[in-house]
Amino acid sequence: MKKLFIVCICLLFAVENGHAQLRSRVDERFELTSIMFALAGAPEYCSIGVPSYLQDIIDELTPYQESEPINYVRVLNQRYLIGYNAVSGTAAMMEIVDGEVRLQPQYDVADVVKYDNRWTEELFTTYLEMVNRFYRESDFHAFFTAHRPLYDEVTAQMDALLNGTVPDWFRSFFGKPLAGDIEVYVSLTNGPSNYAIPGGILIGSGTGVGNGQPYIDGFNAPFLVIHELSHHYTNPLFLEWWPRIEPAANVIYPHIADMMRTIGYGDASSALCEWMNDLFVIMYMTETGNENIPMYTALEMNKGFFWMERSVDFMRNFYADRERYPHVGDFMPQLVAFINYIADNFDLVLAEYENRRPYITNVYPAVGSDISGFEEIVITFSEPMFPSWGFNGTGTDDPTVECLPFDKVTWSEDGMRVTLCLQQEELKEDTRYGVYLRPSFFGSIRKFGLNEKCTTLNFHTISQ
User: CA-CA to 64 of 20 to 30 Å: which in 120, 258, 410, 462?
Assistant: First the structure.
């Protein structure tokens, strides 16, 4: 909770009077620090989606992989767990002037420690020295300048997306306008991570690969941009109401802790703040006519926010009486009471979510039967499915069960059936086979993952 408080204080500076004309840019500070952590092996910075950019980093900068600056960053990451937003947040506090990387005048080292308590003054002071050494020794500015055409290509795509945003929504919804000088940074080295940072936002996973070139995902990127912008408003509001949310959060979090930790929310406060922020983003999408609201809602539920559909429905009451609730802050007593009710009835919430997940209704040849002589296995689902698939082994630790051999997967036109074409020549006599259907890859059109109770299918063959 202390960290959330510090982040709130920093983000408040970004909410000012003014009308924002949003434009994006790739900033040397973020590419510099992100690449240093990539060279040090920090996993979150090793997902570089543009092959040509990755190759240039390998060719030009990996010679410094065992240098003192990168070895120090490796220690920061592995021993002190400094990574993710501890890197981007402090990079936002830096500036590069006349070839020197330094803190901006309004910050000192004590501010860095207040912003993120993973840092100490000693660690950050040495880190800043090492950043400067790497910057000079690698001639990083030349590397950055040489890639300006690539950066321009990705920011042009992001700007086209930003032109479709509605800045006035923030004043209407939160009662405060979007800052006129808020920055939207795009990073090609920030992997799947996106952050609200002092003075702006940093978008990483909005960048992907289309034919080997930079590509802005039109489905995910709009959500991510509004998500990070909204954090500048949601975090202070959540902090204000946290004492009344905390009891419910402590009831809910143990049920979702494992799922939350996999996406970086290691405590009840950060998880519930994320739920509230994502709810507000869905409200933006709803107000601006986005057609993917059911999908966004289902994806949030699959992340672990099982009560998101209820949350979206409850927000109808906010819109039905804007005279009583001019802004969402005025609606917070109701939203707090809502989350308390969710906590009191969380067993019903879990059951409700499970009932929304698709399941297998039929398999032919039947599960547990002899598949000798069959050319295919047809699996029928309870509702239309998205035409994707993913498998992972046998679904059992039993070493006597072998992976089901098949070489082709096809979907029926209505999405109700998937066919696995068996490799007859690979089937052995008197052998048990299994296949595990990954729920995240077998999802309904509504975006709910396959029920875990029917993900493992077992078959066998007999001696001829």
Answer: 120
